[in-house]
Amino acid sequence: MVAVQQEKNGRIRILTAARTLFDSHGFHQTAMAELAVAAQVSVGQIYRLFKSKGDIIEALVHDDADQWCREMAEIQARLDSDELTIDETFEQLLLHTIDEKDEALSFDILAESFRNPAVADTIGSMCQRFRTFIRYFACAANDKLSGEALDAAEEMILACLFGLGHRSVSRPRLSASNAVHRTAQMIVTALRGVR
User: Fold this and answer.
1) For range 131-158, the mean pLDDT
2) What is the pLDDT of residue 70?
3) How far is CA 170 from its chain centroid?
4) Chain Cα centroid distance, residue 88
5) Separation of alpha carbons 151 and 157, rounded Å
6) How far apart are CA 90 and CA 69, in angstroms?
7) Cα–Cα distance for residue pair 49/35, rounded to 1 Å
8) pLDDT class for 103, splitting at 50, 70, 90?
9) Which residues does the UniProt record annotate as the domain HTH tetR-type (predicted)?
10) Which of 11, 33, 36, 110 has its CA 20 to 30 A from that of 161?
11) Which domains does the chain possess?
12) CB-CB contact of 109 with 55 (8 Å)
């Protein structure tokens, strides 16, 4: 039991250190020895828990996806209980994305997905999980959406989430709160306009 807890704690420390180092130094520029020092584990322990840095990236994506899906389920429950309007629902959805603190890491992970099929599959699976919630929210805005129109709505919303999550490099003019509010309004207006 103690060994299992130590392994879990080591995994958490490795992923926490990896998130920080990969975000500040880059995925490829971070040496395993540097990661071991930051996580306060041995290089051997890293390799017992993860086969490679690619496996660490996959674990980070899985952890983030699990957390984000829990948050989207909470947003959905709040919408279903009439605690949130559909506009507020999209604001909450976008707020999570725009508040992304690991923007550089996110870019690095996306770049790695083009080189590493396993990372690409992990991101694809993550997006598939998100699509279920996105479709639900789109239909809450317009219950007549179906088929290709619903597929297009899903793609548009997913693109907005990705784009807003990486907006700092575009030197935005709006504050995060204004961007979220206006974008949510535009998404809901667009969804309601589809016949």
Assistant:
1) 96
2) 95
3) 19
4) 20
5) 10
6) 15
7) 13
8) confident
9) 8-68
10) 11
11) 1-50 (1.10.10.60), 52-193 (1.10.357)
12) no
Q: What is d(CA 176, CA 161) in angstroms, rounded to the nearest whole number?
A: 13
How far is 137 from 89, CA to CA, in rounded Å? 8
Average pLDDT of span 130-140: 96
Cα distances (angstroms) measured from residue 34 to each of 37, 41, 101: 5, 10, 22
4 token code pair:
């299992």
**Amino acid (one-letter) located at 116:** N
